[in-house]
Structure formats: C-alpha cells, structure tokens
Amino acid sequence: MSIAANLDQVRSVLPEGVRLLAVSKFHPVEALREAYDAGQRLFGESRVQELTEKQALLPKDIEWHFIGHLQTNKIKYIVPFVHLIHGIDSFRLLAEVHKYAARAGRVVPCLLQLHVAREETKFGFSISECRSMLEEGEWKSLRNVQIAGLMAMASHVEDPHQISTEFRTVSDFFREIKTSHFAGDPAFCELSMGMSHDFPHAVEQGSTLIRVGTMIFGDR
Ligand SMILES: *Cc1c(COP(=O)(O)O)cnc(C)c1O
To answer: Which of 59, 170, 197, 201 places its Cα 20 to 30 Å from the Cα of 141?
Structure first.
C-alpha cells in the first residue's frame, strides 16, 4: 500500500480530537514528502541531526516533534523550530531546554515522559518521581518551557490487558496532575500515547496524540 493509503487507514479510525504524528525516523525525505502531499503536517523524529536535516529540506508549515532521548548538548539545534519535545525525563533536562529556549526567545512546549512499561532500559519518570518534581515547584520558574502534557510507551507485549492497564495508569495520572498542578492551564492538554501496534488501546484510554511510524512508512 502507498503512504497515502496507509495514512488514510490510520486516520479513518481516529476519533475527533486525536491527532496523528507521523514518525518518520530513518525514512528518506522522499517518504516524508509523500506523506506531506497526502496532507500530513505533524512529523516526529528521534535524532537531532536527522531532524534538523529534514527540517531544512521540507516545507515550513510542518510541525516537527522530537520524540527521542534528547542530549543536552544538542538542545540548541532544535529549539529554534521544534513544535513539541516529547521525552523530558528529568528536571535537569527541562531546565536545560528552558535555558536554550530563553536564548532563542521562545517558549518551547514539552511533554514529561513517564516510565510505566516493564522494560527496564526505557527512559522516563516514575509516577512518584514525576509527582515529587511537580510538588517541588521549581519548574514554575522556567518561563521558556511550557509543560503541555505527558508522553508514555506501553510494554512491548501482546497482552491487551497489560497494555490498556499501563495506558490507563498514565491517563489517570494526567487527570490527577491536571487538577493538582495545571488547573486553569488550557495548554496542559496533550497525552502522547500509542504506536503502530497499540494505538487503538491508547486512544481508548484518552490519548490525544498518537505516534505512528511503521504502519505509515513500513519497516525501518
Ligand atoms: C519509533 C517510535 C515510535 C513509532 O513506532 P512504530 O512502532 O514504528 O509506530 C513512536 N514513539 C517513539 C518514542 C518512537 O521512538
């Protein structure tokens, strides 16, 4: 199937209010252009150099999202244009993004990444670490970052119950902190959950932004 047909297929099952981020990492610019021509405007990349190279070559109305593990020495390359950074996994990283965003004269939207999956190697705050960080309150002084929501990955398993439980844990926590720390802050609104193999479960649990690569572009 073509990229356009794949996009149609994913879009056709998405409820209103759930947006599709096309994860284009490791795919050539031509593949992104094909998706662009089929109306796709949100693209996600996981490596800074690849993101900046593609951004330079493609139309300027694309929303570029960074979904990988961000090294502090590379923040400066994406801060001028990035639309949303999904993988903030420490206060220190948030503070670093703030520093470069201030220099660039921007407020950069960021998602706090939660670790809820069983895999041990994945990045992210535990729920209790994230809660402590928010209670501590220092993040409120970081005026050049906007905490816009949460991002998470579920365990890479077949068991739909396990996957749904993990996504539900994240969306329960999202509601908790929306009340406790972001009440009256409409910019805290994104729940980035769901990939090619599990996005229907994520959508059921309240995802607002799914990150789909393989189902659109094929294997990497
Ligand atoms: C690669 C990646 C995706 C897309 O995964 P697919 O299985 O190809 O849909 C989503 N989120 C993150 C964080 C990724 O690194």
So the answer is: 170
pLDDT in tens, 158-195: 999 999 999 999 999 999 999 999 999 999 999 999 99
Core vs surface per residue 55-91: b (16+ CB within 10 A) or e: beebeeebebbbbbebeeebbbebbebbbbbbbbbbb
- CB of 54 sitting under 6 A from ligand 1: no
What does pLDDT average to over the chain?
A: 97
Backbone φ, ψ for residue 119 (5° rounding): -55, 135
pLDDT for 122 equals 73
HSE-CB at 182 with a 13 A cutoff on CA atoms is 20
* Beta carbon of 46 within 6 Å of any ligand 1 atom: yes
Both tokens of 126, joined, read 């535990």
Of 88, 87, 35, which is closest to residue 62 (Cα–Cα)? Answer: 35
pTM here is 0.97
Q: Residue 212 Cα, ligand 1 centroid: separation in angstroms?
A: 6
Instruction: Tell me the two tokens of residue 130.
Output: 């994230």
194 CB within 6 A, ligand 1: no
